[in-house]
C-alpha cells in the first residue's frame, strides 16, 4: 500500500483506490490513526442537493491513497454536545419503544388489535388488560370491540367515553366501507378452455 501521508488533515481532498480497484474521491472528515480508518464525504450518488455521501474506509484494505489538495483553512471548532438533552431523547425513545411493545395484545383477535392501533393514533394512554382495551384509565372496551362495547369505568367519564366511541365508530365505518369496496370490485372472469 502506498500512502501519501501518515495522517490526513480535515478538509483535504483525497483519492483512494481499494484493493478491489474501486476508486473513491472526497473530502476528509475524520481520520483515526490508531485504527487507520478514514472518513470522507463526497457528492451524493442520488444527486440530492445539500446532502453528501459519507464513507468510512479501512486503510488496511486500500492499495493507493493520494492527497489531491491539502486543506487551506484550519478545521472548524467542534460544538459542545448537550449531554442532558441527548440522555433525555434517549430515555424518551426507550419509553416509546416500551409503550409500543405493550401495544400488542396477547391472544386478542385481529379486530381488537386494529381498533387498539386506531385509538393510539389519537390517544397515547391506551393499554391492554387481558382482552379488554383500557383508554386513559377511564374507558374500557370489551370484545367484540364495537361501539356498544365501550363503557366508562367511572360514571363521571362521559366525555372520555364519547370521544372513544367516536373513534371506534369512525374506525368501524371505515372498515365496513373498505370491505364493501373489496366485495364490489369485479373478480376476474373464469377462463374458458375449449377442447377439440
Please explain how this structure is put together.
Among the domains are: 57 residues, Roll (SH3 type barrels), CATH 2.30.30.100; 76 residues. It is built from three helices and nine strands; from the N terminus they run E-E-E-E-E-H-H-E-E-E-E-H. It has 196 residues and is α+β, with helices and mostly antiparallel strands.
Residues in β-strands, percent: 25-35%
Based on Cα principal axes, name the global outline: elongated
End-to-end separation: 74 Å
The count of strands amounts to: 9
Mean pLDDT: 84
- Pairing-aware structural class of the strands and helices? alpha+beta
**Poorly predicted tracts of residues:** none
Order of secondary-structure elements: EEEEEHHEEEEH
Largest sheet: 5 strands, antiparallel
Portion in helices? 25-40%
What is Rg? 30 Å
Summary keywords:
alpha+beta, 196 residues, SH3 type barrels, 26% strand, 4-stranded antiparallel sheet, single chain, 5-stranded antiparallel sheet, elongated
Brief overview:
The chain is an alpha+beta fold.
Tell me the layout of helices and strands:
Elements lengths: L12 E6 L4 E10 L4 E6 L10 E6 L3 E8 L13 H20 L7 H11 L5 E4 L2 E4 L3 E3 L8 E3 L5 H27 L12
Antiparallel strand pairs: 1-2, 1-5, 2-3, 3-4, 6-7, 7-8, 8-9
Amino acid at each position: 500500500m502506498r500512502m501519501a501521508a501518515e495522517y490526513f488533515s480535515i478538509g483535504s481532498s483525497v483519492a483512494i483506490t481499494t484493493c478491489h480497484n474501486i476508486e473513491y474521491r472526497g473530502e476528509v472528515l475524520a481520520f483515526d490513526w490508531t485504527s487507520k480508518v478514514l472518513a470522507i464525504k463526497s457528492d451524493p450518488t442520488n444527486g440530492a442537493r445539500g446532502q453528501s455521501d459519507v464513507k468510512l474506509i479501512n486503510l488496511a484494505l486500500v492499495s493507493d491513497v493520494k492527497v489531491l489538495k491539502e486543506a487551506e483553512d484550519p478545521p472548524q471548532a467542534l460544538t459542545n454536545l448537550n449531554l442532558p438533552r441527548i440522555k433525555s431523547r434517549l430515555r424518551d425513545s426507550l419509553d416509546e419503544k416500551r409503550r409500543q411493545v405493550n401495544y400488542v395484545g396477547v391472544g386478542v383477535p385481529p379486530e381488537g388489535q386494529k381498533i387498539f392501533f386506531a385509538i393510539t393514533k389519537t390517544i397515547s394512554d391506551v393499554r391492554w388488560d387481558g382482552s379488554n382495551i383500557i383508554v386513559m384509565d377511564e374507558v374500557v372496551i370489551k370484545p367484540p370491540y364495537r361501539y356498544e362495547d365501550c363503557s366508562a369505568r367511572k360514571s363521571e367519564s362521559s366525555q372520555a367515553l364519547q370521544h372513544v366511541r367516536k373513534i371506534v365508530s369512525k374506525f368501524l365505518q371505515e372498515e365496513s366501507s373498505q370491505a364493501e369496496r373489496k366485495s364490489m370490485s369485479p373478480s376476474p372472469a373464469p377462463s374458458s378452455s375449449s377442447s377439440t
